[in-house]
TrEMBL record:
Keywords: ATP-binding, Kinase, Lipid biosynthesis, Lipid metabolism, Magnesium, Metal-binding, Nucleotide-binding, Phospholipid biosynthesis, Phospholipid metabolism, Transferase. Residues 1-126 form the DAGKc domain. GO terms for cellular component: plasma membrane. GO terms for biological process: phospholipid biosynthetic process. One of its GO terms (molecular function) is ATP binding. The keyword Signal does not apply. It comes from Methylacidiphilum caldifontis. InterPro entries: ATP-NAD_kinase_N, Diacylglycerol/lipid_kinase, Diacylglycerol_kinase_cat_dom, Lipid_Phosphate_FormReg, NAD/diacylglycerol_kinase_sf, YegS/DAGK_C. Its cofactor is Mg(2+). This is Diacylglycerol kinase.
Length: 290
């Protein structure tokens, strides 16, 4: 491997359990530098610093939020992303088929097999795997960090149950080719998986130059359970039966607007509010895969 590697490590990943893996990582990687993120946003700053120092293979050691910060530090430079999955769910690592063990993930990085994948954006902020407008972003916003730390992914279910009783927002989506759609909750996928090994977007490919959208007209517990079960079974869905409940689309770019401010999440972290423009640069991001 000819590249100059720098590792960006997030001790707060996996509900702060990742911090216990730092010494193991030091032993494993020898004299490869490890920069420890000190606060939310610092992984992005440390990535920018590393690139300025001449490192051209930046390894995100953390979960999806850490990867998101690292790629946002690339700023259009020709660098390669490596991943050591140390997060709670690690959806992007699952999508790439990366091994979960630290040792195997590091061995994969040293082998240096590179894949070029699409690099999506929401306004000026990049993401790698998924985004959401409406329910899931609000859930992330409202579920307290301490509850997440204690209960893990289960904590979100309580917030979902609470939010389903509230009035649902009204989203207007304008696709690149001009057609308009409306609904209350939008899920966006660069790859197939969302929230775990659930193929919510069975037709999505990381390198097809398109974003996949799933727009729910109205969300209820029945609708959520139905689609979750289907995605769990590998994306078995019935086009006819889904009509009215959900609209699926694929597009290179689209705009989401709403009368009220609706929250937006990127790669599982709260990002901001509507309006938001989504776009995708085809095969722009280089990432190491098995
Ligand atoms: N030193 C730090 N202290 C607190 N938070 C941090 C620190 N460094 C980074 N963060 C934040 O930690 C959050 C969680 O990180 P990450 O998403 O990587 O882990 P995770 O939630 O366990 O994984 P996943 O999203 O794959 O389930 C990110 O939003 C990131 O901004």
């Amino acid at each position: 491997m000819q590249n100059k590697i720098c590792i960006i490590f997030n001790p707060a990943a996996r509900g702060e359990k990742a911090k216990h893996l730092l010494s193991k990582l030091y032993t494993l990687v020898g004299d490869v530098p490890i920069k420890v993120s000190q606060y939310p946003g610092d992984a992005e700053a440390k990535t920018e610093w590393a690139i300025e120092q001449g490192y051209d293979l930046i390894v995100a050691a953390g979960g999806d939020g850490t990867i998101n910060e690292v790629v946002n530090g690339f700023n259009g430079r020709e660098v390669i992303l490596g991943v050591i999955p140390l997060g709670t769910i690690n959806v992007f690592a699952m999508e790439l088929g990366l091994p979960r063990s630290i040792e195997k993930a590091w061995a994969t990085i040293l082998q240096g097999n590179i894949r070029a994948i699409d690099f999506p954006k929401a306004n000026d902020q990049h993401f790698v795997q998924l985004a959401g407008v409406g329910l899931d972003a609000k859930v992330l916003q409202l579920t307290h960090w301490n509850v997440r730390k204690t209960l893990g992914p289960l904590s979100y279910l309580f917030t979902v149950a609470y939010l389903l009783k509230e009035t649902q927002p009204s989203l207007q989506i304008t696709l690149e080719e001009g057609s308009r759609l409306s609904g209350s909750f939008l899920l966006i996928g660069n790859g197939r998986y969302y929230g775990g090994p659930f193929a919510v977007f069975p037709k999505a490919r990381l390198d097809d130059g398109l974003l996949d959208g799933y727009l729910f007209s109205r969300v209820s517990s029945t609708v959520l359970i139905k689609y979750w079960l289907r995605s769990f079974m590998g994306g078995l869905y019935d086009e006819e039966e889904s009509e009215g409940e959900v609209i699926r689309f694929q597009s290179r770019s689209f705009v989401v607007q709403s009368k009220e401010e609706v929250p937006v999440e990127l790669d599982g972290d709260f990002y901001g509010h509507t309006p938001v423009s989504f776009s995708c640069e085809p095969q722009k991001l280089k990432v190491i895969v098995p």
